[in-house]
Design brief:
mainly beta, Cupin domain-containing protein, Jelly Rolls, RmlC-like_jellyroll, eight-stranded antiparallel sheet, single chain, RmlC_Cupin_sf
């Protein structure tokens, strides 16, 4: 049995593809190019800490759709337990990122993640993190709009 796509749905999909320019769909960045992007305000989907450098690699966590942000977290930073409404994935690209799950930020409950490490931030699942003397850079991807809601007690 062959399934037919309704004409309206196919037309809508074509409109979306036509509205997206190749610059919106195709992006290649070296690590230097990614770190050279402008720093944006600590907005939706971020910890809200102004000491963390956030860069938009693709999309925008404040808007509907796929996004990827880069966060460069300075040495000695602690991010209290919080949640996001969207399901997210992340990859550590530099430094050492101490990441844990739970509604209370407890240093001993984290796992040290080195460059190349991958982790998830399931929607609504509390998590927390901290950096040691080397700091860390992490790429986070989700489908917005995102948010950040703090829970529990800070470190």
């Amino acid at each position: 049995m062959t399934r037919r796509i309704p004409r309206g749905a196919a037309f809508f999909a074509l409109l979306l593809l036509a509205a997206a320019s190749p610059a919106d769909l195709q992006r290649r960045l070296t690590p230097d190019e990614a770190s050279g992007l402008p720093v944006v305000a600590a907005g939706r989907g971020t910890s809200g800490l102004h000491t963390i450098e956030t860069r938009l690699l693709k999309g925008d966590p404040a808007r509907p759709g796929l996004y990827t942000i880069s966060i460069k977290v300075p040495p000695g930073t602690h991010i209290a337990a919080h949640t996001h409404r969207d399901d997210r994935t992340a990859t550590v690209v530099a430094g050492l990122w101490h990441f844990g799950y739970g509604s209370q930020a407890i240093e001993g409950a984290t796992r040290a993640l080195s460059p190349g490490s991958f982790y998830t931030e399931p929607a609504g699942d509390p998590h927390f993190a901290w950096t040691g003397p080397e700091g860390a850079t992490v790429y986070i991807t989700g489908i917005g709009p995102s948010d950040t809601q703090y829970v529990g007690k800070p470190y």
